[in-house]
Amino acid sequence: MAILKVAQMGHPILRRRADPVTAAALRSRDTQRLIRDMIETMREYDGVGLAAPQVHASIRLVVIASHRNPRYPQAPAIPLTVLVNPAVTTLPGPRIAWWEGCLSLPGLRGRVVRPSRVRVRALDRLGRPFTRVFEGFSAIVIQHETDHLDGVLYIDRMTDLKQLSFEREYQVHWAPAEASGKGA
User: Fold this and answer.
1) What's the rounded Cα separation, in Å, for the pair 20 and 101?
2) Over 94-149, what HEC string results?
């Protein structure tokens, strides 16, 4: 396994629509190695998700997993999930705000409002189709990562750039209010 180089904001690959993964490509050693390396890279940098374009592979592939870590100490657990060619549908329900971070925008956080429930249809890492509903934090992570597949960064979803913060300032000024339930 290898830790992959993460593309940062400004790199053109982050603004390109990624290509679908074919069945043959998904079964290939290269794609299976990429999946393993993406999981290792996500864990190395305390991420909760990683999309293939972020590691310079313009294909429709996402990995997510959440456990408490320094970047997301309040995050609920999300089991390791690999999504190939995901299609996301918003479901009825409230919208929720979350201070999102991104490995491609290191050191920054921005408050984004997103739907709280989504349905995902995708293939798993073995090419088996599945459908799952994600809610709350996991729905936010899914939307954030699948946005990468369409060349969208979380800052594109922000409605108030006054709520874009350096990570350190977020931890001092915004995180305590979030943790107390008072929000931002």
Assistant:
1) 26
2) CEEEEEECCCCCCCEEEEEEEECEEEEEEECCCCCEEEEEEECHHHHHHHHHHHHC
Distance CA 76, CA 73 (A): 9
Give how far Cα 14 sits from Cα of 11, 24, 37, 72, 153, Å.
6, 25, 19, 23, 8
Half-sphere exposure of 21 (CA within 13 A, CB side): 32
From 145, 167, 169, 178, the catalytic residue: 145
Q: What number of CA atoms fall less than 13 Å from residue 52's CA on the CB side?
A: 27
Distance, CA of 179 to CA of 171 (rounded, Å): 10
pLDDT in tens, 104-161: 999 999 999 999 999 999 999 999 999 999 999 999 999 999 999 999 999 999 999 9
> pTM of the prediction?
0.94
User: In degrees rounded to 5, what are phi and psi of residue 115?
Assistant: -60, 145
Q: Would residue 167 show up in a list of annotated catalytic residues for this protein?
A: no
